[in-house]
Design goal:
Layout: E1 2-4, H1 31-40, E2 46-53, H2 57-66, E3 73-77, H3 86-94, E4 105-107, H4 111-119, E5 123-125, H5 134-146
Parallel strand pairs: 1-2, 1-4, 2-3, 4-5
Helix pairs in contact: 1-5
């Protein structure tokens, strides 16, 4: 199972908290291809998890499909957390992870989301560590499961 963040992970855009990126925002090069390969050729299940609010579900799904991303469940933060501090917002996003550490790899560009999950034993990858190069990131995702 791969939990894949959106903003800052598969696309680089400045988004308002909980909102959508600017219209016309494109995905990072090779992000959709790598995720398609993981899903179709290697059988990975993908859950898109995002700090966007649930009201943006349909627009988010449309963007993913228009840009060639594989189908996957979309889990979104409850809009009630929008006025919370960053640590509390991180907790709001962490509740979206429902698989055990032995079943999931977490991909997110925000270290404050990843750090608590790492402490729980999850394999967590930050695309910033790979300079958002999806070929290297795809290899790291594949290798991460080998250590489980």
């Amino acid at each position: 199972m791969l939990y894949c963040d959106l903003d800052g992970t598969v696309l680089l855009a400045v988004c308002p908290p909980g909102g959508l990126p600017p219209e016309g925002t494109l995905p990072l090069e090779h992000a959709a291809d790598v995720l398609q390969g993981l899903k179709l050729r290697e059988g990975w299940e993908i859950i898109y998890w995002t700090g966007r609010y649930g009201q943006w579900h349909d627009q988010t799904l449309d963007w993913l499909m228009q840009n060639g991303f594989p189908e996957g469940e979309i889990r979104m933060v409850d809009s009630k957390v929008k006025h919370l501090s960053i640590p509390d917002m991180a907790k709001g996003k962490q509740v979206l992870v429902t698989h055990s550490p032995s079943e999931a790899v977490i991909l997110d560009d925000m270290e404050y989301y990843l750090a608590p999950l790492r402490q729980e034993g999850y394999v967590c990858l930050n695309p910033n560590d790979f300079k958002h190069d999806w070929f290297w990131l795809g290899a790291a995702i594949r290798e991460s499961i080998l250590g489980k």
